[in-house]
Specification:
The chain is an all-alpha fold. The two termini are 26 Å apart. Helices cover 80% and strands 0% of the residues. The chain is globular and about 55 Å long. α1 crosses α2, α2 runs antiparallel to α7 and α3 packs across α4. It has 19 helices and no strands.
């Protein structure tokens, strides 16, 4: 908490973004884990249809948020962010009132789009800071805020859904209303704020801008990073989903539920306790070593999962290593994006790299199919190969030879 207080005291814009990330994540955490139950109960849809709606809405929201790279260059940041927050709030509020499956799916796309855009704007703003130390501190504080939101959101959702089925959406709407109120009350925070990537006195000619844009988006390093992000997110983006699928195939609902609860608690505890320390130690010179260590943590964690059986301490140990890999891999990918992005194109780089999050959305479906058709050893071996391939893609970028932005 000292880190958050130090960072936010110096920068009211950071305060607003961290506050928004925390509450919007609480809102999503109150809704997303319970959507499958809500869709099947409210609309009499199958689990498969519910899962398809969740994945499609997540992927569509992420793909549509590619436009956030241009939003980062908008002159009136106050209106841009206000509009995105309003979209998020309305998607939650109207979700409680939606009477059809297709309507709810559309509102979920809107929610994911608004959230992805705000996160991209935040990352672009962090990247625009002068020193790498400040960037890591702010990113660490945001990572802490997001994980706190994911820790508290599901608890809120579980509480309110016991009162009324659609109460999860009302809870999410209330949580997302607070950033809107802050933005209205504190108009001074963002009215003069702009995430401009190129200053007016350094304007480029139309031909130069076109050339740079083509070079940016066709960058080999950006392509490799996005691909690495996709494969990485496939493994660590939503591990509880495929691990619960594995468990339910072999053990009772009670056993599965208790193990999943222990893993979620372990994951949250590791992220909250270790992420700041690990992020503070990552530099351009040692980044590949940290990523290699993180890959090893993932692989050893997968081996433990395969042999864990009903041994709960083994599942805790496996998730402990898995979470250590996550708190190293995720910030490293952010820092690499900042490392390779030209100042005039940071927004577009973060927008494109954010496409890697689709790996987490596809993972439950792909892994569900593999689990139903192959042995567990093949399943966990496949995941180990995927995360190792993600590391190889980053290794191929030769980031140690790239000039660090803002250093």
């Amino acid at each position: 908490m000292t880190l958050n207080a130090t960072v936010t005291k110096r920068n009211p814009v950071v305060s607003f973004f961290l506050f928004s990330s925390f509450l919007l994540t609480i809102a999503r955490g109150a809704v997303i884990p319970f959507l499958a139950v809500y869709i099947t109960a409210a609309f009499d849809e199958s689990i498969t249809s519910a899962g398809l709606a969740l994945s499609l809405s997540s992927i569509a929201g992420i793909v549509l948020s590619l436009y956030a790279g241009r939003l980062a260059r908008a002159k009136n940041a106050w209106m841009t962010i206000f509009f995105l927050l309003l979209l998020f709030f309305l998607s939650m509020f109207l979700g409680a009132l939606s009477g059809g499956f297709a309507t709810l799916t559309f509102l979920l796309i809107v929610m994911n789009f608004a959230y992805s855009c705000i996160e991209i704007l935040l990352r672009t703003y962090i990247s625009s800071q002068k020193g790498i130390i400040d960037k890591k501190k702010i990113f660490s504080a945001n990572y802490f805020a997001v994980n706190m939101g994911w820790a508290l959101g599901p608890l809120l959702g579980a509480l309110v859904q016991s009162w009324q089925l659609n109460a999860i959406f009302y809870a999410g709407a209330v949580a997302s209303l607070f950033p809107l109120v802050w933005l209205i009350i504190r108009t001074d925070v963002l009215r003069e704020f702009s995430i401009q990537q190129v200053k007016n006195n350094n304007r480029l000619s139309t031909d130069s801008k076109t050339t740079l844009r083509q070079e940016d988006l066709s960058s080999g390093k950006l392509f490799l990073l996005t691909l690495a992000s996709f494969f990485g997110a496939f493994v660590y983006g939503n591990p509880v989903a495929y691990l619960s699928q594995h468990l339910i195939q072999h053990y009772s609902v009670q056993t599965t539920s208790s193990i999943v609860a222990l893993m979620m608690f372990t994951n949250a505890a590791v992220v909250l306790l270790f992420q700041h320390y690990i992020i503070s130690k990552i530099t351009q010179g040692n980044m590949l070593k940290f990523l290699m260590t993180a890959t090893g943590c993932f692989v050893v964690g997968l081996v433990i999962f395969y042999h864990a059986g009903e041994n709960r301490p083994a599942w805790i140990a496996g998730m402990f290593l898995f979470a250590l890999g996550e708190v190293t891999f995720v910030p490293a990918l952010f820092l690499i994006t900042d490392l390779i992005a030209p100042e005039h194109a940071r927004g577009r780089y973060f927008s494109v790299q954010n496409l890697g999050a689709t790996g987490a959305a596809l993972s439950p479906f792909v892994m569900g199919y593999i689990l139903s058709t192959a042995d567990s050893v093949i399943t966990f071996g496949f995941l180990g190969i995927i995360i190792f391939f993600s590391f190889l893609l980053i290794y191929g970028m030769r980031i140690n030879q790239t000039k660090l932005n803002g250093s």
